[in-house]
C-alpha cells in the first residue's frame, strides 16, 4: 500500500492528525516507538485550559485559540473532560491583586459566550476553604477551566483513526527514511525486530521532543528549534474535602496547580527544568520534590512531607524556541506551535514544533490545511462537531449516565460505574454487552479492574502490557500493589 501521509509519533499531535486526516479520506500510517501517549502526552497537568498565565506575556492569540478550543473539546469528549473551578488565594493589600482581577476579566472576555461559570471573588474568612489556607490569605478569585484524562485523549484519537482506516503501529520505531522515486520510503523496526518498508507521499514529524533527532535523518537544517523542558508532578492522598483546584503563584513568578485527582488523590505540579538529553528518561529530582513541597507549604495550614508522596511522574515538553535562545526565562517561552513544511526533492515533509493538549484539534486542522494543495481531493474540516468514541452525550448528562449504568449492572458498584463513564462514556455498554452477572466480568485483578475490561483494552485500545493499562488506559496504577500487578501481567502474557 502507498500511504498518503506517514506520521511519526503517537502522542496527542500525531494521533490528532491521524484522526483528522483519516476522516478526510486520506490513507494514513502512524508509527510510535513505544506505547501511545507514553511520553509527554501522559505526563501533563491534565488540563484543558486557555492559559491564564499566558496573559502575563501578552500571548493573546494563543489564549483566544485555547479558550475557543476548550469549549469545543468539552462538547466532543464530555466523558474524559469536565469543568473544574480554580481558586486563587490572595493576600490583602497586595498591589498585584488588582492585576490578577484584570487578567481574569480579560480571560472571561476573550472566552466570550461559554457554558463555563464566570469568575467571582470570595472572602476566605467566611468560606469552608479557610480551614486549608494560611490566615494571611484573606480573599480569593475563583475561575473556570477544564480537566482531561490526557492519555485517554490520545488513545481515543488513535482508536477513531483506526476505525476510519488508519494503520496504527505501536512499539514500532522509524529507523530511516529516504526518497524512492516519487515517494518517501520509511523504514521501521517493531518490538519483534522485524523491519518493514512503508511507501508514502508525505511525512509528518510529530515526534515531540524527538523532532530534531528525526530531522537529522535527512540532514534537515530548519530555522526552527525546540527547548526541552522537564515538568514534574507529585501525587498525594487527597488534601481537601472539596473539588476545587488551586492556582498558586510563587515568589519566583512560577505557577503551581493543586488539583483533585482520581477521586482519592491530589495532583501537584508542575516544575520547569531544562532537560539536556532526550535519551535520558525524565524523573522527578530531589530538588524538584523539595521545591514543590515548599511551594505548597507556603500556602496551606498543613505541612506536607516527603513520606506522604504516593507517586511522581515527569515529562519533557518540546517548547517551540522561536529565537533559538537558551538563556530566555523558561516561563516566558511560548506554548504555541509552529508547522514547518519543507519540500525535499518535491516531497512534502512537515514538522510540528511545540503544541499543547488544549489546541491539538486545531493544530491537526492546520496541518491538513498546510497539505491541502498536495492532497486537493481530501475532505473538509470535520472534527469540531464530531464526538470522540464514547463522547456522544452532553456534559450535564454524565451523572444520569452513571446512574443508568449502575442500574443496568448493579454488581459494578457506584465507583466502578463512575470510572467506566469517565473513561469509556457510552462505549461502556459495548464493553459490558455480554455481561449478564458478576461472574461474566471474569477475574478481578483489583480495584474493579476485571478480565472483561482488560480484554477490551488489549483488543481495541492498543494496550500491550500491565503498565499500558494501569497508567495510560486507566490510572489504577496508583492503587495496585506489586502482587496485583504481577497477576495482571501474567494474565496478559497468556493473551498476546
Walk me through the structure.
There is one protein chain. With 496 residues, the chain is of the alpha+beta class. The protein has three domains: 2-41 and 151-225 and 333-370, 3-Layer(bba) Sandwich (FAD/NAD(P)-binding domain); 71-147 and 227-322, D-Amino Acid Oxidase, Chain A, domain 2; 395-493, Alpha-glycerophosphate oxidase, cap domain (Helicase, Ruva Protein, domain 3). The chain contains 13 helices and 20 strands. The strands form three sheets. Strands 3, 4, 5, 6, 11, 12, 13, 14, 15 and 16 form a ten-stranded mixed β-sheet that branches. Strands 1, 2, 7, 8, 9, 10, 17 and 18 form an eight-stranded mixed β-sheet that branches.
CATH architecture of the largest domain: 2-Layer Sandwich
Domains (count): 3
Structural class: alpha+beta
CATH class of the largest domain: Alpha Beta
| DSSP strand content | 25-35%
CATH superfamily of the largest domain: D-Amino Acid Oxidase, subunit A, domain 2
Oligomeric state of the chains present here: single chain
Please provide the count of β strands. 20
What is the CA-based Rg, rounded? 23 Å
Query: What are the segments in which pLDDT stays under 50 over at least 5 consecutive residues?
Result: none
Number of helical runs? Answer: 13
Largest sheet: 10 strands, mixed
User: What coarse outline follows from CA principal-axis ratios?
Assistant: globular
Distance between the termini: 26 Å
- The overall pLDDT average reads 92
CATH topology of the largest domain: D-Amino Acid Oxidase, Chain A, domain 2
The share of residues in helices is: 25-40%
Amino acid at each position: 500500500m502507498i500511504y498518503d501521509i506517514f506520521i511519526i509519533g503517537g502522542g496527542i499531535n500525531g494521533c490528532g492528525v491521524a484522526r483528522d486526516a483519516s476522516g478526510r479520506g486520506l490513507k494514513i500510517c502512524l508509527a510510535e516507538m513505544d506505547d501511545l501517549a507514553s511520553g509527554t502526552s501522559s505526563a501533563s497537568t491534565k488540563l484543558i485550559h486557555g492559559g491564564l498565565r499566558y496573559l502575563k506575556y501578552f500571548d493573546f492569540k494563543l489564549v483566544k485559540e485555547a479558550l475557543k478550543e476548550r469549549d469545543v473539546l468539552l462538547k466532543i469528549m464530555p466523558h474524559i473532560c469536565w469543568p473544574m473551578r480554580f481558586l486563587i488565594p490572595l493576600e490583602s493589600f497586595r498591589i498585584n491583586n488588582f492585576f490578577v482581577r484584570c487578567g481574569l476579566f480579560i480571560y472571561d472576555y476573550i472566552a466570550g459566550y461559554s457554558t463555563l461559570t464566570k469568575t467571582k471573588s470570595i472572602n476566605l474568612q467566611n468560606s469552608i476553604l479557610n480551614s486549608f489556607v494560611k490566615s494571611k490569605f484573606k480573599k480569593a478569585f475563583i475561575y473556570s477551566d477544564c480537566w482531561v484524562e490526557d492519555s485517554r485523549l490520545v488513545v481515543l484519537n488513535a482508536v477513531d483513526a483506526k476505525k476510519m482506516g488508519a494503520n496504527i503501529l505501536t512499539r514500532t520505531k522509524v529507523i530511516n527514511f529516504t526518497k524512492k522515486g516519487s515517494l518517501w520510503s520509511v523504514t521501521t523496526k517493531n518490538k519483534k525486530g522485524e523491519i518493514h518498508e512503508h511507501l508514502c507521499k508525505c511525512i509528518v514529524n510529530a515526534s515531540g521532543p524527538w523532532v530534531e533527532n528525526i530531522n537529522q535523518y535527512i540532514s534537515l537544517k530548519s530555522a526552527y528549534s525546540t527547548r526541552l523542558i522537564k515538568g514534574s508532578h507529585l501525587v498525594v492522598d487527597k488534601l481537601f474535602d472539596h473539588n476545587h483546584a488551586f492556582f498558586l503563584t510563587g515568589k519566583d513568578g512560577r505557577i503551581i496547580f493543586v488539583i483533585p485527582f482520581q477521586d482519592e488523590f491530589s495532583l501537584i505540579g508542575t516544575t520547569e527544568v531544562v532537560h539536556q538529553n532526550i535519551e535520558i528518561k525524565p524523573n522527578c529530582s530531589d530538588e524538584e520534590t523539595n521545591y514543590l513541597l515548599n511551594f505548597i507549604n507556603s500556602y496551606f495550614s498543613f505541612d506536607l512531607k516527603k513520606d506522604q508522596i504516593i507517586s511522581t511522574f515527569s515529562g519533557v515538553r518540546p517548547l517551540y524556541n522561536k529565537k533559538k535562545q537558551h538563556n530566555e526565562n523558561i516561563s516566558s517561552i511560548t506554548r504555541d506551535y509552529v508547522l514547518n513544511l519543507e519540500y525535499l526533492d518535491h516531497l512534502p515533509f512537515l514538522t510540528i514544533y511545540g503544541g499543547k493538549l488544549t489546541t491539538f484539534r486545531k493544530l491537526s486542522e492546520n496541518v491538513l490545511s498546510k497539505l491541502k494543495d498536495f492532497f486537493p481531493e481530501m475532505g473538509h474540516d470535520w472534527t469540531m462537531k464530531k464526538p470522540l468514541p464514547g463522547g456522544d452525550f452532553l456534559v450535564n448528562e454524565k451523572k444520569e449516565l452513571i446512574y443508568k449504568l449502575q442500574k443496568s449492572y448493579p454488581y459494578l458498584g457506584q465507583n466502578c460505574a463512575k470510572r467506566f463513564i469517565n473513561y469509556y462514556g457510552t462505549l461502556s455498554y459495548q464493553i459490558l454487552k455480554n455481561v449478564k452477572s458478576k461472574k461474566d466480568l471474569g477475574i478481578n485483578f483489583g480495584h474493579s479492574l476485571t478480565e472483561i475490561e482488560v480484554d477490551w483494552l488489549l483488543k481495541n485500545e492498543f494496550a500491550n502490557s500491565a503498565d499500558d493499562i494501569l497508567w495510560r488506559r486507566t490510572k489504577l496504577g496508583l492503587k495496585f500493589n506489586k502482587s496485583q500487578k504481577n497477576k495482571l501481567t501474567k494474565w496478559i502474557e497468556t493473551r498476546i
